[in-house]
Amino acid sequence: MAKTLRRLVKSIALTAAVAAVGLTTTAPASAADVSSYVVGGTRATIAETPWVVYLATTSGGQFCGGTLVKADKVVTAAHCVTGRSAASTRVVWNREDKQSTAGTVAAVSRIWVHPGYTTATAGYDVAVLTLTAGITSDYLPLATPEDTDLYAEGTQATVLGWGTTCSGCSTSRYLLKATVPVTSDTTCRTAYAQYRNTSMVCAGRPEGGVDTCQGDSGGPMVAGGKLIGATSWGRGCALANYPGVYARIAPYYDVLTAQIGS
Ligand code: ARG
Question: 204-223: buried (b, 16+ CB within 10 Å) or exposed (e) per residue?
């Protein structure tokens, strides 16, 4: 298992390196062109998903996604922000096109990482950023422990992000979304020995083709109008029988609410 993990980490690092070397992002001529080279995604608008944000460095480079869960609170993945300072982190809202200057760039005053977090594959992959000012009142509620139906096999979940459009590709210039079915615990456990249904939830079609990918981490997985997951990890992207793994939000409802306020 340690070997598999190392290989996984290596492949993630390699993918990141390839993405960083940056083949220049080829801009699609129109929204209609996108689906042909996205991991099964299509363009999304901020108007329909006003709570989606991306995390950026002070020089503007996007590195993860996130979700507004209060006017001034963002839920993301712990692995996105662990070891980062609040001062070096920005939250970008209302900017579908990363090459534009649209929307709001918010400063971060505090980063809370779940104290149980070590690595994404061990669970606890959740974090809360506090912004120096509120952005919008159009934020998304967290799934609660009562929302078991939202985690049932086959629930159609929406995932969003500016991550890579295939394993090893460059990240997307535009916000993309896709719909993926929640998988059963058995399916996810078969794919991944590290799967824990107390801290993770998997989604993806058995045949693959639609998935989140590098750079989407921390971004929203939404069902029933609630945040049910945060993009966390997976083997490659969009591979058959290897669903994407998301941090499961409901088990962290109390601990997250303590950070967010009710
Ligand atoms: N770890 C990746 C990130 O930091 C997310 C990977 C998601 N992978 C997947 N197959 N769904 O952006």
Answer: bbeebebbbbbbbbbbbbbb
**pLDDT tens string 120-161:** 999 999 999 999 999 999 999 999 999 999 999 999 999 999
Cβ of residue 163 lying under 6 Å from some atom of ligand 1: yes
User: Is 33 tagged catalytic?
Assistant: no
pLDDT on residue 5:
34
In one-letter notation, the amino acid at residue 135 is I
pLDDT per residue as tens digits for the range 203-240: 999 999 999 999 999 999 999 999 999 999 999 999 99
Of 72, 79, 170, 172, the active-site residue reads 79
194 lines ligand 1 (CB under 6 A): no
Token reading at 183: 């998988």
What does pTM read for this prediction? 0.86
Query: Domains plus CATH for the chain?
Result: 1-262 (2.40.10.10)
Any ligand 1 atom below 6 A from CB of 172: no
User: In a mutational test of the pocket of ligand 1, which residue from 237, 239, 246 has the highest number of ligand atoms less than 8 Å from its CB?
Assistant: 237
